[in-house]
Amino acid sequence: MVHVTIRMLVPPKKRGEVLDILSSVAERSGFEEGCTNSRVYQEVGSEPVFMVDQLWASAEDLEHHLRSEEFRRVLLVLEMSLEPPEIRFEEVSCSTGVETIEKARNVLPGGR
């Protein structure tokens, strides 16, 4: 799996336009083969910071998306960023859930 995060600071006057574009891309990406998660977040605060968070089943699925017309729209939004955007592609070899918390809390000394 490949986890994608993109974080960008956009001009306040472009906030609505950026949110519309990124929300549309996230929704449509969710229907692409290999996309298991596609969301857009806006950070709380005075600065309009947006984050795109996606999870792809394989590097090949992600590469197909990166060549798509949908991703071209993301690139256009990245050009609006007031500072260089943070872009990360992380390969995930293992993923767990609440069982990790349960395991850690049951093993801690003193019953904590």
What's the Cα radius of gyration? 17 Å
CATH fold assignment: Alpha-Beta Plaits
Number of domain units: 1
Return residue spans where pLDDT drops below 50 for at least 5 consecutive residues: none
**SS elements, strand count:** 4
Largest sheet report: 4 strands, antiparallel
The outline comes out as globular
Please report the first level of CATH classification, the CATH class.
Alpha Beta
H/E series, N to C?
EHEEHHEH
Mean pLDDT: 90
Secondary structure: helix percent? 25-40%
For the record, give the distance between the C-alpha atoms at the N and C termini, rounded to a whole number.
33 Å
Q: CATH architecture, please?
A: 2-Layer Sandwich
Query: How many helices?
Result: 4
Strand order of the largest sheet: 2-3-1-4
Derived from helix and strand composition plus strand pairing, the structural class reads alpha+beta
